[in-house]
Amino acid sequence: MKMDITEKTLGIVILNYLNYKDTLECVKSLLGQSYKAFYIVIVDNHSANESYQVLRNKFSGVENISVVQTSANLGFAKGNNQGIKILKEMGIRKVLVSNNDVIFFDKYYLEHLVDLKYKSCVGMIGTAIINADGGNHNPVPVSNLTYGRFRMYEIAASFKCWSTRYVPGIKKLYDFKHSLVKKGTSQHIDGSHTHILNPEFEMLHGSVLYFTENFLNEYDGFYPGTFLYVEEDILNLLCKRTGMRQMYVSSIVVKHKEDGSSDMAWENRDKRKMKSHYQRQSLRCLDSLRRKPVDQLKIAFLQC
């Protein structure tokens, strides 16, 4: 029997790919929350291991958790959108999308989240996200990276890799230059206080993202045209072009372990290659969206 859905019900989407142990730990931390009016949809992204069966067996008797599996690996955006779609069909219009390697260690996290007051322009909310090194993911500086610029970086990186191997002494020169560039170009983003983000300079990290009813009454989740990477940049573009805004809340905190699923999916020797492939693919999408008029940009978010 499923739980009763009310206006106060918070939807939660967790995308699983291979790494079901992290998913189990994430859900355990959610079930320990003080706020209980939530419904979790775990989307297994067609894992090529026992993930779906393990998760389905574990949560088959839990009334506020559903486990579904996609027919293929849909990637990050479409995979999460599958979960959002299920929740919207249930009448839920406030959805927290979380990576499966996130720990909700503060038992009042959801309670504080649903109690937040925000303006009608706020479509997405992000909180402090502490990474494995103790730093805060949020907010993220806007990079304005393009496909062409990324390809130039890749070529330069390839040359650097070759030259440091075959040209004696050049590594010291590269290290010195890098230290100068880092000192001169580091961009400071203030994550110490709650505020509405300026989409020209800052955006929210995608590992834990709360979509409000202001967003989900109009859109169905992430832009569905990417497989992996740049999802946050595309949401930021939508904000920049439409007047929708993101809000950062510094007082609510989660922990993010990072990259568990990609580490399992790709061998170490393949990880850099696969990451570059999907970054190139997604940056092409972003470049295309930047050229669209605002009405076509909105339509692009609704295409399957």
Mean pLDDT: 87
CATH class annotation of the largest domain: Alpha Beta
Uncertain runs are 170-174, 176-186
Q: What is the strand content?
A: 15-25%
Your description of this structure?
The protein is an alpha/beta fold. The chain has two domains: 10-139 and 189-301, Spore Coat Polysaccharide Biosynthesis Protein SpsA, Chain A, CATH 3.90.550.10; 147-185, no CATH class. Helix content is 43%, strand content 19%. The strands form two sheets. Strands 1, 2, 3, 4, 5, 6, 8, 10 and 11 form a nine-stranded mixed β-sheet that branches. Helix 5 (147-166) runs antiparallel to helix 10 (268-290) and helix 8 runs parallel beside helix 10 (268-290). The two termini are 31 Å apart. The model is unreliable at 170-174 and 176-186 (pLDDT under 50). Residues 12-171 form the Glycosyltransferase 2-like domain.
What's the layout of helices and strands?
Layout lengths: L9 E7 L3 H12 L6 E7 L6 H9 L5 E5 L5 H15 L5 E5 L2 E2 L5 H6 L7 E9 L9 E2 L5 H20 L3 H16 L9 E2 L5 E2 L4 E4 L1 H4 L14 H12 L2 E12 L3 H6 L2 H23 L3 H8 L3
Parallel strand pairs: 1-2, 1-4, 2-3, 6-11
Antiparallel strand pairs: 4-10, 5-11, 6-10, 7-9, 8-11
Helix pairs in contact: 5-10, 8-10
Based on the model shown, name its key terms:
304 residues; alpha/beta; Spore Coat Polysaccharide Biosynthesis Protein SpsA, Chain A; 2 domains; 9-stranded mixed β-sheet; two-stranded antiparallel ribbon; 43% helix; globular
Produce a short descriptive summary.
This protein has eleven helices and eleven strands. It is of the alpha/beta class and 304 residues long. The chain is globular.
